[in-house]
Predict the 3D structure of the following.
Amino acid sequence: MSNNNLLVIGSGIAGLTAAQAAAKNGFTVHLVEKDGVLGGKAATYACKATNNCAKCSACLVLQVRAAVEAEEGIKVYLHSRVSRCGGQPGNYQVQLKTPAGEVEIQVAGIIVAAGFSPLAPEKRGELGLGWQRGVISALELEQALAREGKFVKAYPGVQKIGFVQCVGSRDLALGNEYCSQVCCMYALRLARKIKHELPDSEIAVFYMDIQTFGRSFDKYLKEIEEVAQIKLVRGIPAKVFSFPYEKVTVRYTDSLSGRVESEQFDLLVLSTAITPENELTELAQTLGIEQNRFGFLANLEPGNYQSSKKGIYVCGTCQGPKSISDSIAQARAVVGQLLTDQATR
Ligand SMILES: Cc1cc2nc3c(=O)[nH]c(=O)nc-3n(C[C@H](O)[C@H](O)[C@H](O)COP(=O)(O)OP(=O)(O)OC[C@H]3O[C@@H](n4cnc5c(N)ncnc54)[C@H](O)[C@@H]3O)c2cc1C
Ligand code: SF4
Ligand code: SF4
């Protein structure tokens, strides 16, 4: 191998996994992260275990992060970005903007793992996110539970909680027809965790469709409804109202009964869509690679994670919505593909 340097952009679970796998295969990895810590969003999520592990994978991120921090073959650049990229496959010349100044590196290949951003609140402003008291995003709930440890500590006095699914996903008006893949899974697990801690709480989940996850999903759903007494309501609120002042009132059409209903909650949690990372277009332009019609980074074809440019690969949620375990699997597959491409070049 003439040049055994590799650039990984983004240190969420996809970038961490790719960096770790590449270092194990003899690469010197330059891991560039624009934030001040490694781990991306999933490193800030709560453990969703009740009496048993809920298999949410959040703790895996912390394990992989610790392994990457201990790995000598990985050079980490925090608060850093790619400012220029030239050269050709096998020998890209990349300029990094780091707190210590501009750094030039020459790399054999590039793996982009720049992650996602949650839907901008104003895109579904009628649901109150960002301006209506008592309305939060699921990301805020994850982070508050991780920070405070207990729901009652994070949200004292809250007894009645509503989850609203598919906010900005499967949404033709926004041009986001895709399913965000993970929100049914995390919302049900979060609801289950809250109910476990607060058995007297009332929880409703408003959905239009439920994305199944895992082989034992039907059993899990039954347990959610019958044992945990979490109400699943087929119908998505179109609007929220702040009347009375201390409650969030939602009005929705129950698509099973056809009736227009309204209900009041102390807290409304919106499962907002996984959308392209805020700076992804800028990064794609710097690297000279294409985005798909939703703005995620385009890969050549299913199962082939080369971008539109040879020697540059994409993995994790910058390529499309996916779970932690799917991001890990894809990042490993990308390193495998890169090694094969190098061997056959
Ligand atoms: C509310 C919520 C809850 C979820 N809960 C679960 C769950 O319980 N289980 C599960 O499996 N999945 C869950 N997911 C999905 C999970 O968040 C993703 O699968 C995971 O975060 C994907 O990791 P990633 O590395 O692709 O992206 P990210 O976690 O977004 O990491 C990307 C990293 O790249 C960095 N970056 C971005 N652009 C640049 C740039 N230009 N230069 C340098 N660095 C850059 C970012 O700062 C970030 O650190 C949840 C998602 C949401 C929204
Ligand atoms: S973080 Fe998730 S996978 Fe890890 S122990 Fe908790 S519930 Fe289980
Ligand atoms: S995962 Fe569930 S909540 Fe998320 S977009 Fe798909 S169907 Fe909607």
About this structure: The chain has a mean pLDDT of 94.
